[in-house]
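Hi D.,

Good news: the full-assembly prediction came through. Inputs first.
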Amino acid sequence: MERKKAIEVQNVAKSFGSFQALKGVSFDIYDNEFFTMLGPSGCGKTTLLRMIAGFESPTSGTIRLHGRDILDQPPHKRRVNTVFQSYALFPHMTLEANIAFALENLGWENARIRDRVAQMLDLVHMTPFARRRPAQLSGGQRQRIALARALASEPEVLLLDEPLSALDLKLRQAMRDELRALQRATGITFIFVTHDQEEALDMSDRICVLGAGEVQQIGAPNEIYEDPENRFVADFIGETNFLPAEVVSVEGDRATVTTPLGPVTTWHKGAVAGAPAMLSLRPEKIGMEDQAPGEALHGTITGRNYMGGYTHYTVTVNGTELRVSKRNAVSHGASLAVGAPVQLAFRPDSARVLAR
Amino acid sequence: MSWRDFRIWGLAPAWVIMALTLVLPIGIVVLVSLSIRGAYGGFDWGLSFDSYAKILFEEDWDGNLAFTPQYLAIIGRTLWLAGLTTLICAVLALPAAYVIAQAPARWKAVLVYLVTLPFWVSMIVRVYAWIIILGNDGVIEKTLRGLGLVTDMDSLLFTNGAMLTGLVYSYIPLMILPVFASIEKLDPALIEASHDLYGSRWVTARRVILPLTLPGLMAGAVLVFVPCLGAVLEPILLGGGKTMMMGNLIQTQFGGGRNWPFGAAIAVTLMVLVMVFLMLNALRARREVGHA
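Then the structure:
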């Protein structure tokens, strides 16, 4: 199925003085997609979002909205709305008036505005609060009104600038589900900016990992996590062990490397025979004791962090430290003490060879 | 001493200062306004409302009272000029304060300093400067004539316009500063949100920036309007003493006119006007708080 492009970002670069915030990035975002831009602070993700909204303009490159170049349009002419990090609800207006604001500016008739405002309040379960002002709401309620306000005019694209960062943990979990449901219900393209990988993995159709002003990888959440394109992505998304490796041979998508844990043959990205590389091995992919099929490695536990649902162990094998996480499947189950000898094993296919 | 006692007696110094500097002088002015004019200036203590009646009525040769609008006109002109000054200050201060608030941090302090700079120069000197600018053969007239735009022009000085110019010039810093403070408090994200929600610059100014800077504008309005009501210098120097404001009237009665009770009566009237204005403002502010 040919999917329609909602946003096309082409060779967009942005410099602030001598600092290059974006070094020429290009990607497409499709209609009805929940697209997340993920990266550490300073990676350029917010700058990119603000360019789509029209608050900043790129030093070079183009941005198209449904095929039209929008860079010469001021923000109030772009059919794109933003949910701000601070929500930016108008404090002097009731919630109704906040939601109606965009519709009034678009010149809708009063009756139609009334209907849409009621419909939006209903959509975010805030109907009883219509006449209140933002100061009288909790954080989660403000969040919902900010969403209702931004969605009321049915923008072509909705931009969300770290909208969950101001909420506490429980509420954040609940709002994730609500956001996802809202995106499905409205069918509007969501572009979500966050530095929280868990949020990104949970909600997105596709994730664009940005680092150092460049696109590091674009893909579905499981692709990003399981098949990282490079060291940056493997490091930024989740936790991993990086082991120094020498590439012995490369055959298509697979490479054989020697590591401190012995030779490993698995999928690779950018490995060259004879060159140094890294082996990325996620802590949860390593089996400890009887969990492990395959040939076992002998090691000693040198550190332990109890996390509730999991325990993270540091295990030293042949002088190499490995992080191993183990699910605490039984309450007060026998936990392994520091100094205890253990056997480790992992499936080679679960590891990834990455260029150094 | 208990905490309760301390709360009462601890404030004693403040009470004494308030009594000596506020209640006592105002009380004297009120008493003087109710007393009778002395034969050779000064006054004799008494209880008479003649001085207040004099604001509205004139005693003719036969001792009959007839309505006279002359003082009412001065009160009206004072209110009108003070009101207009406040309005013009507000209109000019908004963009000025906005520019200062948007300036880079290191310029902001400099610009605020420049706004307050005129206060370092004597008020009389500053108002005199306007005589040189507006006067016959002054800066404006010479410039216009030099450019050949006019050959003959009426004097700009000694007009209501000149007075207004002087008043706006004198008091506009008192408007710019509170407006600047309220614009600076304004979350820039709100302005972006307005643009984002299809609000043009005009819509954003009218529906977002103006309502949210209203508290600053109102504070500025009090700071400008109240001293304008009592302005003395501008009418004398720029109005040429032909067109009086209440401040001049009071000054004349205490000075040349030698009618202290009448001067005091006008002063009390002025004070009541100011208090009414402040109360209306306070009521509005309280309503505002009730809404938020």
